[in-house]
Amino acid sequence: MPSSVMPTSIPSAITANGLRKSYGDKVVLDSIDLHIPAGSVFALLGPNGAGKTTAVKILSTLIAADGGQAQVAGHDIAGEAQGVRGAIGVTGQFSAVDGLITGEENMLLMADLHHLPRREGRRVTAELLERFDLVDAARKPASTYSGGMRRRLDIAMTLVGSPRIIFLDEPTTGLDPRSRHNMWQIIRELVSGGVTVFLTTQYLEEADELADRIAVLSDGKIAAEGSAEELKRLIPGGHIRLRFTDPATYQAAASSLRETTRDDDALTLQIPSDGSQRELRSLLDWLDSAGIEADELTVHTPDLDDVFFALTTRQPKETTR
Ligand SMILES: Nc1ncnc2c1ncn2[C@@H]1O[C@H](COP(=O)(O)OP(=O)(O)OP(=O)(O)O)[C@@H](O)[C@H]1O
């Protein structure tokens, strides 16, 4: 895997070896290893209840692991929790925003918690409210904010302490498409400023858009890890789909094309393909020479959805890893 051949000159922001956590009989994290280079975006992807939040809580020292070790920003999560906390910011499902006070007051409170001198606190607050487009709403109670504004305030509050590593636990869950794209832009800007982002998400598109590396968490284990492109290559699934309306044409095509998957009810044929121009051309040539005309032709290349479903669909017990 590329993580093992990572240039040693890139320092690791987060490393974990054999992290374990159970609640009662339920094993939530079953020996997790992570190596996240500084300045990169790492996405931990998994279905509901996979253990993503548990991983964030352990790495941000909110809860203790049952076993294994991890270093965050060079500090051991068990022995140097204060060092870890000083280097990180956490936002997400356990938001720090207080709805009863204004956005600005929330920011100033954060500045106090970080022991910033009053003037410096005001300067940082004004700068971040501006950067996150919250100036107009700054004097309104945070309870009146939309979901997107609240998330922006949450991240702005996290940045008061200038963290080098930020944990974003499902940062866009429940946001509308525009707010989601705004949030992605904010995350990209954080990374271009050198921050390392550890992101959890259920959205494949989000991981595809933002992450340098993606790990798919399933049944307490990392089922696969790599860039979006590497993960897509892991699974087959590319195909060309031909749809017919005339049953006789469909039958003629089905009986003469090899390696097809038939759907006799929908009158469609699926031909395995890597989606390349060469394969598409040879299929079209063949259809032409056989005098077969499909009513619709679509090319399907595997996407992260395919990877996700292939890796997280529960298998019968004896075939699981
Ligand atoms: N304090 C707790 N006590 C008992 N079980 C817990 C506790 N916290 C989490 N769990 C269980 O651990 C599992 C993983 O939970 P976790 O919140 O980490 O999942 P997740 O991947 O973040 O899910 P989601 O996408 O729904 O937030 C779930 O089955 C959950 O019910």
From TrEMBL:
Keyword Cell membrane on entry:
yes
| Cellular compartment(s) | Cell membrane
The protein's topology relative to the membrane is:
Peripheral membrane protein
What residues does the ABC transporter domain cover?
14-244
SMART domains the UniProt entry points to? AAA
> What InterPro entries does the record tag this protein with?
AAA+_ATPase (IPR003593), ABC_transporter-like_ATP-bd (IPR003439), ABC_transporter-like_CS (IPR017871), ABC_transporter_ATP-binding (IPR050763), DrrA (IPR005894), P-loop_NTPase (IPR027417)
Transmembrane stretches, by residue range? none
Principal subcellular localisation of the protein: membrane
Q: Which UniProt keywords apply?
A: Antibiotic resistance, ATP-binding, Cell membrane, Membrane, Nucleotide-binding, Translocase, Transport
One example of the protein's molecular function in GO is: ATP binding
Superkingdom of origin organism? Bacteria
Give the record's family classification: Belongs to the ABC transporter superfamily. Drug exporter-1 (DrugE1) (TC 3.A.1.105) family.
Q: What is this protein called?
A: ATP-binding cassette domain-containing protein
Q: Which organism is it from?
A: Streptomyces spirodelae
